[in-house]
Predict the 3D structure of the following.
Amino acid sequence: MIPNGPGTRPRRRDHAILRTWQRYMRLLAVSAACGGWRTRGMRDSERLAAYWAEALGGPPLYSQRYGDETSVVRIHSGNGAHEEMDRRAIACFGQALADTGLASTAIAPADRLRQVLYDYFAWATTTTMARYHRSADDVPDGLAIPRWSWDGLQPDPSPTME
């Protein structure tokens, strides 16, 4: 689980992650990568914080308050292929992580935390969020939010349906 661990102060780290997101949004606002990308302001930050907390091993706040992975993927689907925009978004996020200056903690040095967050963002941007180019209607119902840890993508904890 990334958000909490022995010797860490979640509030301080959570604020650093939120600062990273805010910095990323500012970079996107001035980047040609944003194209048709839009934000709805603070509500997007709140939803994103709940989503990331859940995806990074925290409580299921996003699923309880806003929806499942299907709802998230549908927001990002039906816009055609956009590999160049994805590359630029990942570069913006990497720069935001560097600019934020995350501090080292008892469970990981700052560079390890930045790398894990970067790897997660790059993976999500190029896989789950880029899978349904043609139409949001192609996204299946009932997708679970993928979980990410220090070791990368974690197995789906939900039971296998046969």
Remarks:
- Confidence is low (pLDDT under 50) at residues 3-10, 32-38.
- Helices lie at 10-30, 42-55, 61-65, 69-75, 83-100, 110-126.
- The CA atoms of residues 78 and 135 lie 4 Å apart.
